[in-house]
């Protein structure tokens, strides 16, 4: 992933007290000095390695956190004509969250619990947090397991002696009405623009060879990067489930298919006009959350959680100015933090990304349209340019 | 004697062959804290309660967990052991306590099997509960705005018979208003106080002395009558429970036709309001307020090529067997066709169309009126202006001509 080599990221929580431990040096004899120094350095290093990943994020300025994550590992959504696993019995049907996927999101929830231990109250309270999910089953279920990890019941909340889990409300909207999380509500002008852009990209001669060979091997027409997108996801899910992919895939998967796959995810929000319609309503929600926190109209609610799909993460990243092609893995998450510098009476925004659930600490990434620190005003101003005042109208629905 | 025995055996055999082909289960959430209190309530301080107002309590979670276990046993032959999203659909109103009740219920209904166990420490698995914001939800929350409904309800509560019936409780309402310092005008106001007092009793909170005179006896009837007023007329019933009944009956016909992957079990997580509307709308409400976890069952029974609807109800927070309700003019085992005919007024609703009607039309009329008014004002104003200007012109002209005349002289 491009962010791994990005030199702008840094560890968000470097514990400060360890520096002090390193300073006092005994001078009685050189040998003891060397040993003590060596041990001190070693323990400092070890302490840093261990603690920096488990220690809660220390921040006195943090006011609000918004998390958008992708669901966990799933069974393939579709199949293709020559698919040897066409009749494979996926335990819970096509597109369903697998047990591995449940574990991924549970672990992610636990990691955020640890990471934000000083910020997110240990006990779940309705007033502190609002959770919204895409209506698709795998997203709802991912949200539930994430919450199971984030909010294990406190002693007071244990309602069943053998079940250390508690129900937490997750709000959603049917797909045909959802223009915020899944962004699946129909939008005519978006569709027209998207289809033109897709056709333009499909006509790119650089894909001709790939399309030809995929059509041949799958025994079905593969003439669009959208077809490549679906095939890529299917092959990926099969591979992760331990199925042996057919021989022909070796030449194209993931190698040659990856770029058109990532491009296909990006096309939905490729330019500003598409972003306004595809991501604008989510940005509008984000803007409202930030505004409420800054103006103290909603003091309690300091955590918003969104459970969506890979395209939703890609769209948000693109709207925030990161236009490199992305492939968010299962359980990948984007974090937006609002900080307050009380003395200077300023608010600023930080952006973090975690490409999968294995990463221990989210990495901070620069917000391209903003100089650091990115002030709230500057951030809101940018969001404003991408938020339609009349979504339905602009969609020409 | 032998004849009777064989007949009985035949009867039971026959009954044994009948199977549940589809079930719609509509339940109320579990134990909760009061949604609202009244100004003089000694227990109105939220911190006296285990959770925030209107939220599900631990007791409520356990009640639904137990109900879920019981549901599993009831439908052991209808649904698979593993949760199957293509045949079981769970829907809740978009309210914390109903969303949480549904989750707790499913925890009891679908404990993870060896195969679906994903975390050894937590004997629970996630199961999707779908929802939709209440002001968009005409099916379960029954709160989406519908102008013809509002108009009909307005007519209904202003009718002579409604007012006469309500006037029986004038003294009670006055008494409540004086003691609660909250305006008590209607059945809905009474049920709000009644429910709060009932919850406080459940939590062993001592009620203020004034309540002894009216709670629970004098308040119960008017309080529970409030569950009848949302389905007070045929049109109100059609617009209120039509969408839900339509959905359920459609699922039943899908099951009769054995459509591939048809829904076998629909679970709806709602409120006392939901339960009351359905029962009263179908003409079987007995006047008792729906308790926590009270459940309505609409089951499609297949017996050979015959199909029946069986309506059952359980109205207790404890695990009790439901009892079969007798549908008016159709009985306890109502043939599906006959049910569809009898309740055609409810099932045949075209909610989108009927509720949109009225609104755009009247909107258009309003718009037209405003336009006319605006044009009228514009006309009048411009008329006055023109007249004024003409007056000035005339004045100037006459002045000029007088001056001319004067100068000429």
UniProtKB/TrEMBL annotation, chain A:
<keyword id="KW-1133">Transmembrane helix</keyword>
<feature type="region of interest" description="Disordered">
    <location>
        <begin position="1"/>
        <end position="23"/>
    </location>
</feature>
<dbReference type="InterPro" id="IPR033379">
    <property type="entry name" value="Acid_Pase_AS"/>
</dbReference>
<dbReference type="InterPro" id="IPR029033">
    <property type="entry name" value="His_PPase_superfam"/>
</dbReference>
<dbReference type="GO" id="GO:0003993">
    <property type="term" value="F:acid phosphatase activity"/>
</dbReference>
<dbReference type="Pfam" id="PF00328">
    <property type="entry name" value="His_Phos_2"/>
</dbReference>
<comment type="similarity">
    <text>Belongs to the histidine acid phosphatase family.</text>
</comment>
<keyword id="KW-0812">Transmembrane</keyword>
<dbReference type="InterPro" id="IPR050645">
    <property type="entry name" value="Histidine_acid_phosphatase"/>
</dbReference>
<protein>
    <recommendedName>
        <fullName>Acid phosphatase</fullName>
    </recommendedName>
</protein>
<dbReference type="InterPro" id="IPR000560">
    <property type="entry name" value="His_Pase_clade-2"/>
</dbReference>
<feature type="transmembrane region" description="Helical">
    <location>
        <begin position="33"/>
        <end position="51"/>
    </location>
</feature>
<keyword id="KW-0472">Membrane</keyword>
Automatic annotation (TrEMBL), chain B:
<dbReference type="GO" id="GO:0003993">
    <property type="term" value="F:acid phosphatase activity"/>
</dbReference>
<keyword id="KW-0472">Membrane</keyword>
<dbReference type="InterPro" id="IPR000560">
    <property type="entry name" value="His_Pase_clade-2"/>
</dbReference>
<dbReference type="Pfam" id="PF00328">
    <property type="entry name" value="His_Phos_2"/>
</dbReference>
<dbReference type="InterPro" id="IPR033379">
    <property type="entry name" value="Acid_Pase_AS"/>
</dbReference>
<keyword id="KW-0378">Hydrolase</keyword>
<feature type="transmembrane region" description="Helical">
    <location>
        <begin position="363"/>
        <end position="387"/>
    </location>
</feature>
<comment type="similarity">
    <text>Belongs to the histidine acid phosphatase family.</text>
</comment>
<dbReference type="InterPro" id="IPR029033">
    <property type="entry name" value="His_PPase_superfam"/>
</dbReference>
<keyword id="KW-0325">Glycoprotein</keyword>
<feature type="signal peptide">
    <location>
        <begin position="1"/>
        <end position="18"/>
    </location>
</feature>
<keyword id="KW-1015">Disulfide bond</keyword>
<dbReference type="InterPro" id="IPR050645">
    <property type="entry name" value="Histidine_acid_phosphatase"/>
</dbReference>
<keyword id="KW-0812">Transmembrane</keyword>
<protein>
    <recommendedName>
        <fullName>acid phosphatase</fullName>
        <ecNumber>3.1.3.2</ecNumber>
    </recommendedName>
</protein>
<keyword id="KW-0732">Signal</keyword>
<keyword id="KW-1133">Transmembrane helix</keyword>
């Amino acid at each position: 992933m491009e962010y791994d080599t990005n030199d702008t990221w840094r560890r968000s929580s470097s514990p400060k007290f360890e520096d002090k431990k390193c300073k006092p040096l005994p001078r009685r004899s050189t040998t003891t000095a060397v040993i003590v120094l060596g041990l001190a350095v070693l323990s400092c290093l070890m302490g840093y390695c261990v603690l920096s990943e488990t220690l809660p994020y220390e921040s006195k300025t943090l006011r609000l956190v918004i998390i958008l994550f992708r669901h966990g590992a799933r069974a393939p959504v579709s199949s293709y004509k020559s698919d040897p696993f066409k009749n494979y019995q996926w335990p819970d049907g096509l597109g369903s969250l697998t047990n591995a996927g449940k574990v991924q999101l549970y672990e992610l929830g636990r990691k955020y619990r640890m990471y934000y231990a000083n910020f997110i109250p240990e006990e779940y309270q309705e007033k502190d947090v609002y959770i919204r999910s895409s209506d698709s089953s795998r997203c709802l279920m991912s949200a539930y397991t994430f919450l199971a990890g984030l909010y294990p019941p406190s002693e007071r909340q244990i309602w069943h002696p053998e079940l250390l889990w508690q129900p937490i409300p997750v709000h959603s909207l049917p797909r045909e009405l959802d223009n915020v999380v899944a962004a699946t509500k129909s939008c005519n002008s978006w569709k027209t623009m998207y289809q033109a852009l897709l056709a333009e990209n499909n006509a790119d001669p650089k894909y001709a060879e790939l399309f030809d060979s995929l059509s041949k091997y799958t025994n079905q027409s593969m003439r669009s990067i959208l077809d490549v997108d679906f095939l890529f996801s299917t092959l990926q899910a099969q591979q992760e489930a331990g199925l042996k992919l057919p021989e022909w895939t070796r030449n194209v998967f993931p190698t040659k298919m990856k770029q058109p796959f990532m491009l296909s995810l990006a096309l939905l929000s490729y330019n500003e006009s598409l972003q306004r319609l595809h991501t604008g309503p989510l940005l509008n929600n984000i803007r409202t959350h930030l505004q409420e926190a800054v103006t103290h109209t909603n003091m309690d609610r300091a955590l918003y959680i969104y459970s969506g799909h890979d395209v939703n993460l890609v769209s948000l990243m693109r709207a925030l100015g990161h236009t490199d092609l992305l492939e968010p893995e299962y359980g990948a998450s984007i974090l937006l933090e609002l900080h307050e510098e009380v003395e200077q009476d300023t608010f600023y925004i930080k952006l973090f990304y975690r490409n999968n659930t294995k990463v221990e600490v989210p990495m901070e990434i620069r917000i391209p349209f903003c100089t650091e620190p990115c002030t709230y005003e500057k951030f809101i101003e940018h969001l404003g340019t991408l938020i339609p005042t009349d979504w339905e109208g602009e969609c020409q629905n | 004697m032998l004849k009777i025995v064989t007949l009985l055996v035949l009867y039971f055999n026959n009954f044994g062959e009948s199977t549940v082909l589809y079930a719609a289960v509509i339940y109320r959430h579990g134990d909760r804290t009061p949604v609202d209190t009244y100004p003089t309530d000694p227990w109105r301080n939220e911190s006296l309660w285990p959770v925030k107002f209107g939220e599900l309590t631990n007791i409520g979670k356990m009640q639904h967990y137990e109900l879920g276990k019981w549901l599993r046993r009831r439908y052991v032959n209808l649904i698979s052991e593993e949760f199957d999203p293509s045949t079981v659909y769970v829907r809740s109103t978009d309210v914390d306590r109903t969303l949480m009740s549904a989750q707790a219920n499913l925890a009891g209904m679908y404990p993870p099997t060896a195969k679906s166990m994903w975390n050894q420490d937590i004997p629970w698995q996630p199961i999707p509960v779908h929802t939709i914001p209440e002001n968009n939800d005409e099916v379960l929350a029954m709160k989406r705005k519908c102008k013809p409904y509002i108009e009909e309800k307005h007519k209904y509560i202003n009718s002579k018979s409604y007012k006469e019936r309500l006037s029986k409780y004038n003294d009670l309402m006055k008494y409540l208003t004086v003691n609660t310092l909250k305006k008590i005008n209607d059945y809905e106001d009474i049920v709000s106080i009644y429910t709060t007092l009932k919850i406080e009793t459940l939590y062993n909170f001592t009620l203020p002395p004034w309540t002894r005179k009216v709670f629970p006896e004098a308040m119960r009837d008017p309080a529970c009558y409030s569950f009848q007023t949302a389905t007070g007329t045929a049109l109100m019933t059609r617009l209120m429970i039509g969408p839900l009944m339509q959905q359920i009956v459609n699922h039943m016909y899908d099951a009769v036709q054995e459509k591939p992957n048809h829904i076998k079990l629909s679970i709806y997580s709602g409120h006392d309001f939901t339960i009351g509307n359905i029962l009263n709308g179908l003409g079987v409400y007995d006047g008792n307020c729906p308790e926590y976890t009270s459940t309505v069952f609409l089951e499609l029974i297949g017996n050979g090529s015959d199909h029946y609807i069986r309506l059952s109800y359980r109205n207790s927070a404890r695990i009790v067997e439901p009892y079969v309700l007798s549908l008016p003019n159709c009985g306890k085992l109502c043939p599906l066709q006959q049910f569809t005919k009898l309740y055609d007024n409810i099932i045949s609703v075209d909610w989108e169309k009927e509720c949109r009607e009225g609104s755009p039309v009247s909107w258009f009329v309003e718009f037209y009126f405003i336009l006319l008014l605006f044009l009228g004002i514009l006309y009048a104003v411009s008329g006055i202006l023109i007249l004024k200007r003409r007056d000035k012109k005339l004045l100037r002209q006459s002045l000029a001509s007088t001056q001319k005349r004067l100068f000429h002289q």
